[in-house]
Amino acid sequence: MTRIVTSALAGVLLVGLGQPALAANREHQQLMADLRMLQEQSQQMQLLLATLGDTLKALNAKIDDQSTAARKAFADQKLLIDNLGSDVRVVRERLDENGTRVNALGQELTSLREAVNTLPSQLQFASPAPGTDPMAAGTSSAPGTPGSTAAFPTTTAPAVPAGPAGGLSPQRMFDTAQADYAAGQWSLAISGFDQFIRSFPTSDRADDAQFYIGESHQLDGKFKEAVAAYEKVIADYPSGDRVPQALYKRGVALSLLGDNDRARESFQQVIRNYPQSEVAVLAKQVLDGLNRRPR
Question: Is domain 168-292 annotated with CATH 1.25.40.10?
Answer without folding.
Answer: yes
